[in-house]
Amino acid sequence: MDNSHKTTLSQLYPPIAYDVNGERFLMQCEVDGNAFDRLQSSAETLLQALHPQDSGTMLADWERLCGLKIDLSKNYQDRVKRVIIQLNAMGGLSIPYFIQLAEQIGYQIQIKEFSALQNDLPALGDVAQFNEVSSDHFIFIWRVTVLNGDDNIVYFRAGQSFAGDHLVEFGDPIIEDFFRDLKPAHTYCYFAYQQG
């Protein structure tokens, strides 16, 4: 059974007033039917775009509306995660807010704030990456520890790694980019990854 609009249109006209088998009539029904078919397809695509995970080729529109850079080098699932994070990021500066934000995209994290007054400072190895930061500003440094970061740690392996590669590389650009975008502007945020 043909469900195209061409067939439907050709059956709408009364056969007494129109030659429903005529060549020109059928050509006109085909032209109009193709336009309605395209319109139907476009409407279905728009309906799917109501949710980022189902939006397909319209995901770039979600990214644009959320103020995200469209990065086609990332896979579809990562791009959807970034959009969902941005949509859920209504605002907040508390530790529970950031922990909840991470949980919504599948990360288990802990956040540590430091206090120079209590002599609670980052470890020396951590401080090394903040050479340009005055020790007075250590109170503005906080560490995000990703607890389920097993997949984000890559070790140097003989036969698989090359000269010049780091012995250990870790990081997750999805969570790191969003935390850097959403953190208070006067703070410094760094990441640690813990194997489960």
From TrEMBL:
Superkingdom, natural source: Bacteria
Pfam families linked to this entry: Phage_Mu_Gp48
Protein name: DUF2313 domain-containing protein
Organism ancestry: Bacteria, Pseudomonadati, Pseudomonadota, Gammaproteobacteria, Pasteurellales
